[in-house]
Amino acid sequence: MKDLKLVVAIVAALSMAAVVMSAQGRRTLDIYSVDVEGGQATLFVSASGHSMLVDAGFPGPRDADRIATAAKAAGISQIDYFVNTHLHSDHFGSIPDLVGKVPIRNYIDNGNLVETGERSIAAYQLYAAVRDKGNHSVPKPGDRIPIAGLDVQVVMAGGVPIAKPLPGGGQPNPLCAQWTPLEEDKSEDGRSIGLLVQHGGFRMIDLGDLTWNKEHELVCPNNRVGTIDLYLTTRHGLNGTGSPAAVQAFHPRVALFNNAGTKGASREHWLTVKSSPGLEDIWQLHTSMPRKGTPQLHEGAEQGGKDVNTAEQMIANLDDATAHYIKVSVEADGAFTVTNSRNGYSKAYKARK
Question: pTM higher than 0.85, yes or no?
């Protein structure tokens, strides 16, 4: 028995040493935008080696395998926090398959489903059965998610924005006067958890599928968030979000569209981002193809198309047969590099002055 205890103690010590060495070997916050074909999945691994997965793609093993591949590339064996921005299956669906590949310690979401469709309920029940076996919590606006080496703040939750501006925010937003409301959204999208992720001087925002009117509450009449470096396009870059009042208030340097070939990166959202003052580049998970039958903000506007794409070297997947990711590595001073795993193309961005 003593020998067994000694072996266990030695193994535990070696495991802890491996974790410490791994953390010491890291210099950057690494962000993996995983291709889940128009769902969403973003893996964050801090310089301390701790991890957060925001959303998890569609049900089934395909997206679970893709997230597990990113986790392996990041050198992690577990996910410390899973944040589900809202209870739609393209954002949590792979969890029942993923936990068998990469264990998850903590779950954060809005709690209970508000939609009543049979398919939504069935998908939610599969997810909740896994979630409820772990540590589960429901955040409030202003809460922080305790990822060692990373500052993650909840700026929206359950349809409610932060009450007070963050440091660097609070400026009047002149574009609010030109904003027009859309029909009230009572779906899960409008309840999306929004996160501001900061590392050194770097700031990134992820608002899930937060819709037009709720997005407005965060930036009007004053911008409560301030400027950001990386804008993960809201709602996959579809219409019904990404108003000029919001995008220009954030003043992003780089935008990343988590789109599929025929979902996301709509023409109006793409052009709104493209024309935002100060934008340096757009990166995309997929080439955006022309499509019909999707909602428009303005009559006659097309969706997708060859001219609504960034430079090919900045697109991770040119078709639906591949699953390359885009990686963002952030230095302690806020400088960051974006890399396309399809072709190895990288571009560095200096820290904001």
Answer: yes
- Give strand pairing partners of 340: 326
User: How far apart (Å, rounded) are the C-alpha atoms in residues 85 and 208?
Assistant: 5
CA distance 318 to 35: 12
| pLDDT, tens digit (0-9, with 9 covering 90-100), for 20-76 | 434 446 799 999 999 999 999 999 999 999 999 999 999 999 999 999 999 999 999
d(CA 163, CA 257): 28
Fill in the amino acid letter for 294. Answer: T
Q: Which residues contact 348 (CB under 8 A, 6 or more apart)?
A: 335, 336, 337
CA gap 127, 331 in Å, rounded:
35
- Tell me which residue has tokens 């995309």: 284
CB 273 within 8 A of CB 279: yes
In this structure, are residues 347 and 337 in contact, taking their beta carbons and an 8 Å threshold?
yes
Give tens-digit pLDDT for 231-287.
Answer: 999 999 999 999 999 999 999 999 999 999 989 999 999 999 999 999 999 999 999
Task: Tell me the CATH number of domain 26-347, given options 3.60.15.10, 3.40.120.10, 3.40.50.720, 3.10.150.10.
Answer: 3.60.15.10
Structure tokens at 279: 């934008």
